Amino acid sequence: MKFKPALLAAAAFLASSAYADTVALWDFNKGSTKHTSSMNGAFFETLNGVTTTFVSQAGSSDRNGTGQALNTAGYGTQGTGNMTRGVQFSVDTTAYENIVLTFDQRNSATASAWTALLYTIDGDNWLQATTFRMLRDSVFVNGLTFDFSNIAGVANNESFAVQLVSMFAPGTSAYAATGSGSYGAAGTIRYDMVTFSGTEIVAAAVPEPESLALLLAGLGVMALVRRNRKQA
Questions:
Q1: Contact at 8 Å (CB) between 87 and 50?
Q2: Domains, in order of start, for the chain
Q3: Could you report the per-residue pLDDT of 181-218, keeping only the tens digit for each?
C-alpha cells in the first residue's frame, strides 16, 4: 500500500502534537514556598501589593490529598486599580511551541467576578489575551484555559509572561462581585495547578556529509539503471 507524502506528514504532525510537555507547573504544595516545576526556568510574583497565603486546595484538580492552593488578597477598592492587581507567571518557552495555559480559580463572594489574562512577549508591553468571568463563588472552577498557539512571539521566547489581574465589569468603571452581594476589597482569589504546556520544537535533521554523499551516489546509480533499462 502506498501513502502520499502529504498524508504521511499530516499523520506525523498529529502524532507529535497529541503529546504536550509540561513547560512549567505551579501546584503550590511546598509549604511556605511558591513551588514551580519547570523545564526551562520560571518564576512567580504578585502585583501592586497583592499578598499571598497557602490554603486548602479542596475542590481543585490537584489530586494530592494534602496539597495547597495559593490564596491572594489585597485587591483595589471599588472603582480603582483596574487590571493592575493580581499575579504574574514568567515562563521561558525556549524550544517549545503551541503554548497552552490552564489553571483552577476560586473566588470569594466579594471578589471581582472578572479576571483579565494579559501577556507579554518582550517583558515590557502587555496585551490582553482574554477575560474570565466567575459565575460561582467559594468553589473552584477547574480547567480554565487559553491557547496561545496562534499568537506570534509566544513560542520559543525567554521573555514570555502572563498576568491574571482583577478587572472592572466590561463596559463599566466598577468591579462586579462574584457573589450576589457587593464587591469588597477584602475579597480573595485562589489559584491552583497553574500549568503551561507545549510541544517541543524539533529541528529538521541535516544529513551528515558522508550520508549526503552516499545518498547522491545512490540516486546516480538508480538513474543509470533506469536509463539502461530504457535503452535495452
A1: yes
A2: 20-206 (2.60.120.260)
A3: 999 999 999 999 999 999 999 876 556 666 556 656 66
H or E segment and range at residue 26: strand 21-26
CA distance 70 to 48: 17
Report which DSSP code applies to 122.
Answer: S
- Please name the residues in contact with 77: beta carbons below 8 A apart, sequence gap of 6 or more: 185
Question: Phi and psi (nearest 5°) for 27?
Answer: -110, -10
The residues facing 42 across adjacent strands are: 91
Question: Are 69 and 28 contacting, i.e. CB atoms less than 8 angstroms apart?
Answer: yes
Instruction: Say how far apart CA 102 and CA 32 lie, in whole Å.
Output: 23
Residues 51, 90, 33: CA angle, nearest 5 degrees: 45
Total Cβ atoms within 10 A of residue 38: 15
Q: What angle do CA 74, 65, 52 make, to 5 degrees?
A: 15
How far apart CA 72 and CA 206 sit, in angstroms, is 50
Residue with C-alpha cell 535495452? 232
Pair type for strands 86-91 and 42-47: antiparallel
Dump pLDDT digits (tens) for 4-29. Answer: 444 444 444 444 445 789 999 999 98
